Amino acid sequence: MGKSTKILITMILILLLLTGGAYAIGAYYFANHFMPGSTLNGYNVSYMTAEEAEELIDREVKAYALAVETRGNGREAITANQVGLTYRSRGSIAYMIHGQKLLDWFMHFNEEHNYDLSRSISFDEAKMEAAIKDLDCMQPENMISPQDAAIVESGDGYAIREEVWGTTLDRKRVMRHVSQAMLYGKVRVNLEEEGCYVSPSVLSYDPLIVSNCEKLNRMTSGIITYDFGKDTETVDGDVVKEWLRRDEDGSVVLDRGQVKTYLQWLAISYNTIGNMRNFETYDGRTIQVGGGDYGWEIDVDGETSELYSLIESGATLVREPLYSRSAARRSGMNDIGFTYVEVDINAQKLVYYQDGIPLIETDCVTGSPANGEATPTGVFRAGVKESPKVLTKGFGTMALAQSAFTSDEGAFTSEENTGLEFADDAGLGAAEPAL
Question: What is the pTM of this model?
Fold first, then answer.
């Protein structure tokens, strides 16, 4: 073995001895001291013995103050003295030191070790409640109640009024988070970050309120005008908003029942079937005729569906309602038009008008009241023309043309009188004494 080799081996042995000695000294040292990077409730106790750490904690607890941060950059403080905060040694600090991993102590210089000492720290609950109650942020006059976002009506329709967050605090949550912060030695507690404020339940960006606002603006933006000749009826936003409601989910919906009620009102106002009409007879008299099956009749169910869809789409238009029955014209009381048949029962006279001109005037025979077969009075719709027509009331086959308004009632021509021919759209009327 050469001299240089011996020197190298000797140096390695010395280095190993020094390293081993340093390792042993470190292990021995940290058997009674905290390792580097150690904190107790946030206080740095690196390289301290249990006694030194006890003195630090006791001193710091007595001088401790917690910063209470409130909404709007407010800041208040609660001191240890206010809440009776105390530290009582239970041997836990020495236990923490003894629990350190001594064999790898040299690996802890770049690590942090946070120890919880909250079980050895206590406060007077009554004093804590009093201290929290005395905070400015907890005074009723300083608390602004939260307000939900809401849909409000403006000149341009509907808009969402944003929520008001307010400054109302939940006392139980404040108590819990402040007391926990003091037990763990935290420097600050932010009441907003900890969720201690009472929040509005409806926010302006919630999908439901956004959807409802859009529906309100759409359904109240349209104008549907019903044309009844010289009269009109308008369904606009002021009308529609009275038909809106919220369903079980809180969604704005159009009340179909209200829409139908409106159509029923229109029907009462503008249906003319059976209405009393002023009528000028062939001989210049003005009489009133009522009854019969002729006139305008709104299809309430059908138009309810139409109007419902139009409102939901926000449509603007002028329309006539759907009719289950229609008449010749929409103008005041005279919806008969100018092509019709006039039957005067008393005079046993029949007159046929086309475009307002009497083309045919002839005698007629009406039904016999004595046999229970009286000709009904009123204004009736001309139904069909048939030839020949077999009657069921004893007349036999006698008609070349018939314009019927009930199953076996109408105006007939005999085989000998072939000159009487009614237009397809002729109205048929009979009345006592004149039509």
Answer: 0.69
